[in-house]
Amino acid sequence: MADESHKELLKRHGLRVTPVRLAITGWLGVDSLARSQAEIEKRLDGADRVTVYRALRDLEKSGVIHSLSDSAGVRKYALCHAACAAGSHEDNHAHFSCSRCAETYCLHQVAVPQIRSPRGFTVSHSALLMTGVCKTCAG
Ligand SMILES: [Zn+2]
Ligand SMILES: [Zn+2]
Ligand SMILES: [Zn+2]
Hints:
This protein has five helices and six strands; from the N terminus they run H-H-E-H-H-E-E-E-E-E-H.
């Protein structure tokens, strides 16, 4: 039934259910890892590059997934919390980039602290990326 809830998720965010959108949300929902477009394309064996690109763009715009740059500068995508909506992402968590396995984790339990910006600077988004060795690699 996991498939069914992802259909609901897409509809709730005003998106038409397509096989590619469904496959992406389904896979990203499996764990708290963020994945690159290349990884997603590989996973969705045979999916067209442009189709995947557009699906990622639409999903992010609609508040279903969020993205970040990992420590190597690669853009990675992960599933959002239910609180996100079109035009307003509420993902206020830190991310962790492992220098051994190169995986990027969403640290849902670690909130990005609010930092005061200097006078005249208006913050629209702030991010926190930690790098180091992940739990799996350390064990
Ligand atoms: Zn979000
Ligand atoms: Zn690791
Ligand atoms: Zn995240």
